[in-house]
């Protein structure tokens, strides 16, 4: 058995030597049990957590797999994927090295674990990964209870206490692991190679029934989408509430729609002096125009400077947008009605200035 | 100005080419006289706005609900639209009440009943985004994100065109 430990040591982990030596000492008395071997490697993987392996971890851990030559070592491979992503998770303090020997962490090859492997490899979120590790301990808990008699000889008193702490933690997870084996999809695991079970883990202190799980998954989806929207809408970094965000989104969409209307009105009014422009160059010109990339920061109406004729047209358009949508004929009738009052209504519009950003940039561009 | 970085298949370029084509078509149909009445300008504005919305929706190729809704809105004459929307609204109310049993429906009901503010805002958002009446919150947010992206592109391009026109 010791040569297996040596092979594990040969993996190049920083700061592992102390823990490995301790591990070796403990192992002399252990019987030839794969489970306990696995358990003893827990401190190694705990040390993994402190080390910064990056992408090389998977390659290095395949070596022990070669030495062990067993399918069960899948579970070894599982752990290092899990390990470095814990960072400094304090939950692992509940499983100190002294208690490592008393936990059978790896249950030998259950198909659940293999699904767990593949789903873990796709996981990114720290919480779910942590929970899967706990599920590993939970699954191991079943076999551990069976093998309790064997390992009794190695129990120390404080191990029992620590185990009790861990037990209360993993017990709920264990039972939920069993209950959830039939079912629930994780919203995060995208592909599972062996689609037996997709595990979603309950975090500590949270409800674990299927409805709340699905509810939580839905809520997380929603919050992810709200974050995407936050990136799209300018000036939303400080708003944290959903209602505020929705308000901002609504304002922004309204302002964009109004800008489209104003711009089309402007084009309609300004089209007067245009001859047909060369069609080939124009799209490239237009699309690459950098000044167009700057949208006004405020969500207010864009500012226009229009001559009186255009002001009238703007007025018509505003009337049109305020009234309920009408057919074309009716829409044309309303401007004539309102044209008499248009001059009075022009007063508020005359305070609009040119869009300083866009126009000044455009003049600076000096295109030919 | 660099003319070589244009991605020919990007949303912006697709929209630009379509919109410019529509503009030249509008110009050809009704050439602008120097003295246009407000009525004509208004008509023109309507046509240009419809052209802009249509070309935007076409560039998206009805992969999205809002683009489908926009195209349908612009194509169907108003009386047929009223009939259809009447039927759609009644069936929508039915679905909203009958799906309370299912989990998905429960989600919709939950949202509207959770906070009065949130429900009102959702209704507003549904009105703003074309085709948003029949969607649950999850899809509605997706549609809103894509719609905002396309609207910003549209505004950019139209502003450039307007500036170019105003210069010449």
UniProtKB/TrEMBL annotation, chain A:
One of its GO terms (molecular function) is DNA binding. Keywords: DNA-binding, Nucleus, Transcription, Transcription regulation. Gene3D superfamilies: Helix-loop-helix DNA-binding domain. It is found in: Nucleus. The keyword Metal-binding does not apply. PROSITE patterns: BHLH. Transmembrane segments: none annotated. Residues 146-191 are annotated as: Disordered. Its main location: nucleus. Residues 206-256 form the BHLH domain. One of its GO terms (cellular component) is nucleus. It comes from the Eukaryota. Residues 146-170 have a biased composition (Basic and acidic residues). This is Transcription factor bHLH63.
Automatic annotation (TrEMBL), chain B:
It is found in: Nucleus. InterPro entries: bHLH_AtIBH1-like, HLH_DNA-bd_sf, IBH1-like, IBH1_N. Keywords: Nucleus, Transcription, Transcription regulation. GO terms for biological process: regulation of DNA-templated transcription. GO terms for molecular function: protein dimerization activity; transcription cis-regulatory region binding. It comes from the Eukaryota. One of its GO terms (cellular component) is nucleus. Residues 9-75 form the IBH1-like N-terminal domain. The keyword Nucleus applies. Its main location: nucleus. It holds the Pfam family IBH1_N. The keyword Transferase does not apply. PANTHER family: TRANSCRIPTION FACTOR IBH1, TRANSCRIPTION FACTOR IBH1-LIKE 1. This is IBH1-like N-terminal domain-containing protein. It comes from Hibiscus syriacus (Rose of Sharon). The lineage of its organism: Eukaryota, Viridiplantae, Streptophyta, Embryophyta, Tracheophyta.
